[in-house]
Each structure stands twice: as C-alpha cells, then as structure tokens.
Amino acid sequence: MKKLLVLFTLVFSFSSFAIELPDAKEQGLVGEQRNGLLGVVESSPEVETLVKAINEARLVKYTQIAKKNELTVDQVSVLVGEKAIKKSLAGQYIQNASGQWVVK
C-alpha cells in the first residue's frame, strides 16, 4: 500500500499543462472515476489533453505496481480509484456506483 501512496503523489503532481489538475477539479471539469482513472465532466480540448496525459501516466504506474505485487492492473486501478474518491475534496466530482458524476 505504501507504493500506492507514492503512485498517488506522482499522478497528482502534473504541472506542464495549461490547466492543472487541482484547478480542473475545483472548476468541476474533471473528476475521479471508480476505475482509478480521471474522467472528463465538462469537455474542452485543454481538459481532454490533461485527462489523456494523466490517465496514460496512471496506467503505466498501475502496470508497474501490479507486476511488483502480483496483482492485475484492474485490481490496482480499483484500489486507487477507491482511495482517490475518498481523498476527493467536498465540491469535487466523483463517479458513483452507477457511473454517474456526482458532487462529493
């Protein structure tokens, strides 16, 4: 689980985009999905680029963690998704069990 914490720190620290993840979350443009990936709530080219890049990086890390811990990528993704939703701040979008966006 320590590795998941390190992963979390890495995937949430992108700063090379025109809009950064914390701002996109605060503005309700993106949200955390149950599958451990970021989702687009309100689409724009800038948001799509941010989400694509972050999700690609997350999947690379999930694959590394899965291999090291003899888990599947899906298992790691679900664990990280649960943690990301729990860590999401009030007012941010998260995906509910039905797959719908709701404000936490």
Describe this structure in words.
By secondary structure, this protein is an alpha+beta fold. The chain has one domain. It contains four helices and four strands, in the order H-H-E-E-H-H-E-E. Strands 2-1-3-4 form a four-stranded mixed sheet. The chain is globular and about 35 Å long. The two termini are 24 Å apart. 26% of the residues are buried. The model has no long low-confidence stretch (mean pLDDT 88).
Shape: globular
Order of helix and strand elements from N to C terminus = HHEEHHEE
Classify the beta-strand content into a percent band: 5-15%
Sheet with the most strands?
4 strands, mixed
Q: Kindly, what is the distance between the CA atoms of the first and last residues, rounded to a whole number of angstroms?
A: 24 Å
Mean pLDDT: 88
